[in-house]
Design brief:
Number of helices: 26
Structural class: alpha/beta
Oligomer: single chain
Largest sheet: 8 strands, parallel, barrel
Number of strands: 26
Radius of gyration: 27 Å
Shape: globular
Strand content: 15-25%
Length: 728
């Protein structure tokens, strides 16, 4: 085949080979051909097992479908259902208690509770922005969002509004009063900050409007400072492991108007960031994969940068430098200027043509992801890069869409073989396990047992988990409307079960326990009101859609001591397995024709809005207006829910194929109108037959019952390749 380099049993895309040879390999001590020879051996040994594991998924689904069909119309007997799932190997016996013993874990994962970003690594601008989101301006986050209302003249506009600015400062000072309290009075009363030695210890003091001098209620919360001559230029506080930096500059436009010269307050925000090769990326061929790997390699080497236009100015973005402070004891210390990075690889079901075997078969894409992303990370491990990511010598790979312990076991062995091939110490590669498929959820303790020396991360992802719930129980009956599913008992049990098992296996203080994404990037006031529930649920991290959201979500970790709260949660009983195995069925509930059509309209519009950008433009994740023009962050997980939900209703006769088609055609016009300002957009209407994106959207529904586990990639990838071929 043209543009292929043959090594052993592999045929490697020429551009991918060149990337590895010229950009990744130099400096690692391993040459490109040795790298590919080692990968060839891994593929030979483990690729057949990968196929068998996927066949097991299909076999189990067929068994579950048959069980439900035999009992059609009957309520689910939970005792019989659990016994059946055990008999077919879906549920595995739970073994003795154990404790996760992962070593060499960075503090950002093991001990610091805070926000987490997920960003498509194929977009250099976004990838760098997220990496640099470790620190964020609290003033900017408040000023630019709906957290601060626009009443009484506090409107947002192109020019700075001092009325709005005053509200921002008041909000900030109230926050500081709560988490970094003074002995008395308020931060709003301070006219000057200064340092003073008291009982041989340097402490922060402040002069108030009344000329009274006060200090901190807890002096230990001052951990650092910087000075401009004899004057303080920044003050660094620490609360619940997170830092707050108060910037002082009386020459700054904001500082000039502030009594104490405070120009900004900077919050430690995105403590960790997942650079994503999976659901937020549209990487369908070798060309796309080269871009993904190239950006990750550039980040690991510290060389990635990008130039773009913003507000009429050309901006070059590169990795942020570290931050240096003086401690109260006079010593100096440095804090990272960047998030600690994890890299999410694809799941077991994905295969890629970037590398083919001798007989033309695609290789498991997750194998290639793990091998190349680890190889690139060796620049960080060996100190070759301009910046440091892991200070403990670890590589953090997040793995999605596991179905049970056997799949985790193969992946753990895969990581071991990669370490041996690259000359890395055992357990250098850590694993973050996304608990987003039901077979992993119900077997979570045994999943974690297998990964107990590598584990750094478990989380709940209610989006994919809901899609899997619908597909797994497709034959059991029609589902309730999508918006009601989150209120069902299985969902609460799922969220609690994840934390309960995490506590039982000793994860606090060693790994992250995470919760899912806030999907409304413009609704920050609502996020502040509701997302505090995540740390209250025991999550040491939770996903947010932007650096601004990370800065605002950080507030919750200052207000909730997650470590203390986990101790409280350890006293409760484990969530119910019976609830976990109760699908959200419609049962006797009657839906009106209007309810059905509203649900259809909402799902179809969301599907089309996402698919048209994915297929036509290769955008894997973006803010998409919903049917009410509210911007929602969409990726393949949300697509999986909506498409599986309509497929379920179609399967059970709640809607007809003609109704689905009519709804999609009508909603296509809505989506076309919503995208009319996008010069790269291709209308789907009125030539629906000629629109590859529109046909892909229909395929997701009409083929939804037959798609393995309801995964959307089996439709999206060939359709995207069709568009790319057409546009060449």
């Amino acid at each position: 085949m043209e543009n292929r380099i043959e090594i052993g049993n592999l045929k490697i895309d020429n551009a991918l080979y060149a990337l590895v040879k010229n950009e990744i390999a130099p400096g690692t001590g391993i040459d490109a051909d040795s790298f590919w020879t080692a990968f060839d051996e891994i593929v030979k040994e483990l690729a057949p097992e990968n196929r068998l594991l996927l066949e097991k998924r299909d076999f189990l689904q067929q068994q579950i479908d048959a069980w439900h069909l035999e009992r059609k119309g009957e309520p689910i007997d939970h005792e019989a259902y659990s016994a059946f799932l055990t008999d077919i190997g879906y549920l595995v016996p739970e073994g003795d208690d154990f404790i996760v013993i992962t070593e060499n874990v960075d503090l950002e994962i093991a001990l610091i509770a805070g926000p987490q970003l997920v960003v498509p690594v194929d977009n250099a601008r976004y990838a760098l922005n997220a990496t640099n989101a470790r620190w964020g301006s609290f003033y900017d986050a408040l000023y630019g969002t709906d957290v601060i209302d626009e009443t009484d003249g506090a409107t947002r506009g192109d020019a700075y509004n001092p009325v709005r600015g005053a509200k921002v400062i008041a909000y900030t000072e109230q926050f500081l009063d709560e988490v970094v309290s003074l002995e008395s009075e308020s931060f709003s009363d301070i006219t000057k900050f200064f340092l003073k030695t008291i009982d041989t210890k340097l402490q922060l003091r402040a002069t108030l409007r009344s000329e009274k001098e006060v200090g901190l209620e807890d002096p230990s919360k001052l951990v650092g400072f910087t000075q401009d001559g004899d004057d303080l230029s920044s003050i660094l506080f620490q609360n619940h492991g997170l830092h707050i930096e108060v910037k002082i500059d009386r020459e700054h436009p904001i500082g000039k108007a502030h009594p104490a010269g405070v120009a900004d307050v900077i919050l430690e925000s995105a403590i960790t960031t997942i650079q994503d090769c999976e659901d937020s990326v549209a990487a369908v061929d070798a060309e796309d994969k080269v871009r993904v790997y190239s950006n990750w390699n550039g980040i690991m080497k510290g060389t990635l940068e990008t130039t773009f236009e913003k507000n009429g100015k050309m901006i070059t973005r590169r990795l942020a430098p570290d931050k240096t402070y003086t401690a109260p004891d006079g010593s100096t210390f440095t804090l990272s200027g960047r998030s600690l990075l994890l890299i999410r690889n694809v799941g077991l079901h994905m295969y890629t043509d970037a590398v083919l075997t001798a007989d033309g078969e695609e290789v498991p894409e997750g194998f290639l992801d793990a091998m190349i992303t680890t190889f690139a990370a060796m620049h960080d491990l060996q100190g070759n890069g301009k910046c440091t990511n892991s200070k403990t010598g670890s590589v953090y790979i997040v793995k999605p869409k596991f179905h049970g312990p056997a799949e985790v076991d193969m992946t753990v062995r895969l990581f071991g073989k990669i370490e041996a091939a690259l000359g890395l110490a055992p357990n250098t590669i850590k694993i973050g396990i996304m608990d987003e498929e039901r077979r992993t959820t119900v077997n979570l303790k045994e999943v974690l047992r297998i990964a107990s020396q590598r584990l750094v991360f478990i989380n709940t992802g209610f989006l994919d988990r809901t899609g899997d719930e619908i597909h797994t129980s497709m034959a059991a009956g029609p589902m309730i409307p999508k918006t009601d599913i989150r209120n069902e008992p299985w969902m609460r049990a799922y969220e609690d079960w994840n934390v309960d098992i995490g506590i039982e296996t000793g994860l606090p203080g060693i790994t992250q326990i995470g919760k899912g994404m806030w999907t409304k990037p413009d609704e920050m006031a609502e996020m502040l009101e509701t997302k505090v529930n995540h740390p209250m649920a025991g999550a040491t991290t939770a996903w947010v859609p932007s650096p601004t959201a990370a800065t605002l979500h950080a507030i919750h970790y200052h207000k909730v001591n997650v470590a203390k709260w986990l101790n409280e949660l350890a006293l409760r009983e484990r969530a119910s397995l019976s609830d976990l195995l109760t699908p959200p069925l419609l049962k006797e509930r009657e839906l009106s024709a209007d309810e059905i059509q509203r649900e259809m309209d909402n799902n179809a519009q969301g599907i089309l809005g996402y698919v048209v950008r994915w297929v036509d433009q290769g955008i894997g994740c973006s803010k998409i207006p919903d049917i009410n023009n509210v911007g929602l962050m969409e990726d393949r997980a949300t697509l999986r829910i909506s498409s599986q939900h309509i497929a379920n209703w179609l399967h059970h006769g709640i809607v007809t194929k003609a109704q689905v088609t009519e709804t999609f055609e009508r909603m296509a016009k809505v989506v076309d109108k919503q995208n009319k300002e996008d010069p790269n957009y291709r209308n789907m209407s009125p030539n629906y037959e000629q629109s590859i994106a529109f046909q892909a959207a229909l395929d997701l529904v009409f083929k939804g019952c037959d798609l393995p586990n309801g995964y959307t990639e089996f439709v999206l990838h060939p359709r995207r390749r069709e568009v790319k071929s057409r546009d060449k």
